[in-house]
Amino acid sequence: MSPDPLDALRSVCARLKFAPLPELLDLAELHRRPTIRTEYHSVASLVEEGHLPVLFDKLRTEHGPGHRLPAATNLLRVTLREPIFLVASSLYLTGRAPLLAPDTLRLPWNLSHSRFETPIVVDARTVVLPDDPAADHPDTLVARDEAEQIRLTAEALFATVEPLVEALHAHSRAGKRTLWGWVLDTLHFYMLNPARYLGRDAEQAWELATRLGDAVIAAGAVTRRRPRLFPFAPDHPQGTWAVRGTCCFDYKGDPEHGYCTTCPLKCDGERRQDLNEWLRDPALAP
Questions:
Q1: What is an example of a GO molecular function annotated in this UniProt entry (predicted)?
Q2: In what order do the strands lie in the sheet with 97-99?
Q3: Which CATH fold would you assign to the domain 7-223?
Q4: Are strands 105-110 and 120-122 parallel, antiparallel or unpaired?
Q5: Which pLDDT belongs to residue 1?
Q6: pLDDT, tens only, 238-261
Q7: Residue 65: is the preceding peptide bond cis (ω within 30°)?
Q8: pLDDT tens across 14-71, in order?
Q9: The CA-based dihedral angle spanning residues 106, 108, 166, 183, taken in that order and rounded to the nearest 10 degrees
Q10: Exposed / middle / buried, residue 120 (Cβ in 10 Å: 0-12, 13-18, 19+)
C-alpha cells in the first residue's frame, strides 16, 4: 500500500521547534474516547446547534480577555491554530495538502476547565499531485496540477472556517475582515515559520503562502490588508520576518503588553530593533 500521505509531515515536524499539529484520528478512534469530561464538537455542530455563543461567553468569562475583539481572535487561535498549521505547513514542506471539512474538524471542549483542547482532524483526506508516491493511497485526492491543488485546498479551508467566522461575527460583533484577516495572516506565518527555522528561502515560502491566500480570498474570504515580509537583517539566514495585515487586538486585552512585534500598528523602527535583539539573544523572544 502507498505510504500514509501525512507521514512525511509528521517526520519533518519532528525537526521543528514550533509545530502545533492537531490530533489526526480516524472516526473509530474518536468514538472510543471517553466523553464524561469532554464534548467533541464538529465545526458544523458547534455552529448549527448554537453552541458557539455559549462557549465563547464561557471561555471569555473564565479565562478572558474581557474585551470582545481580542476575545474573538483568541477563539480563532484556540480552535484554528493547529488546523491552519496542518494545511499550510504540509503544503509547503511536503507538497501535500490536507483537506479540512466542517464535519471532520472536531473541537474538543473540556467541561472541567471550560476551554478548548487540541483540535482533532478525523479521517483526513489529502490532495496530492499526480507524481506523488502517495497518489494511490485511499485517503488521497489527486489534483491535475499545482493550481488545482491550491484551489481545492483553499476551498476546503474556506468551507470549514466560514461557518465559525460567520457565527463569531454575529455574536461578538467583531468584523469579518478582522476575523478573516487573522486567518490569512496565520496561514502566511505558518509557511514562513518552518522556512526560517530550517534555513530555507523565506521569499519562496511567502510566495506559496500568497498563492494559497489568494485562492482563499477567491473562495470568499474578505480582508482589508494582507501581511508583508519584513527583512530586518538581510545578511542573516533568519533575518526575515513578517508584519501582519490585521491587528489581533491583544493589546486591548492587555494594555501593559502593548503591540505585538508583528503588529501592523507597531513602528517598523521599533520592530527592527526588537527582532535584531532576538537574533543576538533568542532567550529574549516571546
A1: 2 iron, 2 sulfur cluster binding
A2: 97-99, 125-128, 140-142
A3: Transferase(Phosphotransferase); domain 1 (1.10.510)
A4: antiparallel
A5: 62
A6: 899 999 999 999 999 988 888 999
A7: yes
A8: 999 999 999 999 999 999 998 899 999 999 999 999 999 999 999 999 999 999 999 9
A9: -80
A10: buried
Distance between CA atoms of 145 and 148, rounded to whole angstroms? Answer: 6
* Amino acid code (one letter) for 36: I
Q: List CB contacts of 69: < 8 A, sequence separation 6 or more.
A: 172, 174, 178, 249, 252
- What is the DSSP code (8-state) at residue 284? G
Pairing of strands 23-25, 120-122: parallel
Query: Helix, strand or coil for residue 121?
Result: strand
| pTM value surpassing 0.85 | yes
Q: What's the pLDDT band for 212 if we cut at 50, 70, 90?
A: very high
Nearest to residue 4, comparing CAs of 167, 115, 136?
A: 136
pLDDT (0 to 100) of residue 43: 98
pLDDT score of 286 more than 60: no
pLDDT of residue 257: 81
